[in-house]
Amino acid sequence: MTQSRDASDGTALPEPGAVEAARKAFRRLLLRARLRQGRSRVRAAFWPIIQASLAAGIAYGIAHYVFGHPYPFFAPVSVWVCLGFSLDRQVRKVGELAIGVAVGVGLGDLIVHFIGSGWWQVAVVLATSALVARFIDRGALLATQAGVQAIVIVGLPAAQTGGPGGRLVDALVGGAIALLAATLTPGDPRRRPRILGDEATTELAETLELLARGFRSGDVDDLDAALVRGRASEPALEEWQATATSAQELSRVSAVGRKHRAELGDLERKAVLVDRAMRSVRVLARRSRPVAGPEHDLLPVAAIVDRYAAGTRVLAEAIGAGKDPVTAREILAETAAAADPRTVGAGDWQVQSLVMLLRSPIVDTLEAAGMSPREAREALTEL
Questions:
Q1: In angstroms, what CA-CA distances link 185 with 41, 44, 93, 182, 342?
Q2: Which regions span the lipid bilayer (predicted)?
Q3: Which residues of 257-289 are buried (b: 16+ CB within 10 A; e: fewer)?
Q4: Planar angle of CA 201, 309, 27, nearest 5 degrees
Q5: Whole-model pTM?
Q6: Where are the domains of the chain?
Q7: CATH topology of domain 189-378
Q8: Would you say residue 289 has pLDDT above 70?
């Protein structure tokens, strides 16, 4: 980065043009990361959304043409609430939502028919629907949807939806279609966590590749780019952790998920470990900035980080495919053995400190690749 000197004390200051260029580079990296993550979310949600949309259209058609309702609003609403855009369509969960919608609509219709609409009617309808839902089942989704649909009922004129009874029929039709769709297209609870795991672990690999490039070039801008990339990966890592945790929890009550409980637990553990490794890599990127320059030989460190990135990419592919990452373990174990500050950066304590910082995320990634904590630590050369 181009620098100028302050006249008063000789402090090196960045040129205004260089500062603006760095800001533009930061914004470009952030935008690319968000676009990449957005495309990933669209790919994962594409077929679930198409399926839910078709089911909503079918429910509307049945309520309109079979039952003669002019505007069967609650039929497609019930389908969308039950199915949504996720592949995680456990029959119990869909059933809870369908019952919740029906309870809210039915009780809302009944109460509003006798007491009308208004601010206090909203309070009465909401309280009654939620309490009845809690009595029916312990599921939080059931009570939530019952309350939401009851509130909608108070403000939506019955004449537009086929009368009070018509709205309940519409909700039941939508719930039945949603249950049928969930039964006919059962989702694999491992699929979404695998996809997100592949993407999040690839984010770590690409951050490492940027970091290695910065070590080779000695350019502070390249190191800053690695730090920006690492920070921009946080949403992907958080989504993987949240999805893996949710899938693991659902596996306890789902017959489909129960047989995959071990892998789902392993995916949840991997998500935590990869996130931990990314945090350590971001620390390494920040600490590398003062060391960048011709006075320090960072090429051996770059070689180690390159190998680390290659092993992480292989790990990402294995996570996405649901396979044992044996090749990734081998590459990462070699990387761990090479991360020896006594030989890499000998005589330069600042370079040695970078090697020391590199050892921690390598151990975390080895654990994510299937090694036990003890095996991962033993893969490092003893100091």
A1: 20, 15, 14, 5, 57
A2: 44-63, 69-87, 94-112
A3: beebbebbebbbebbbbbbbbbbbbbebbeebe
A4: 70
A5: 0.65
A6: 45-184, 189-378
A7: Methane Monooxygenase Hydroxylase; Chain G, domain 1 (1.20.58)
A8: yes
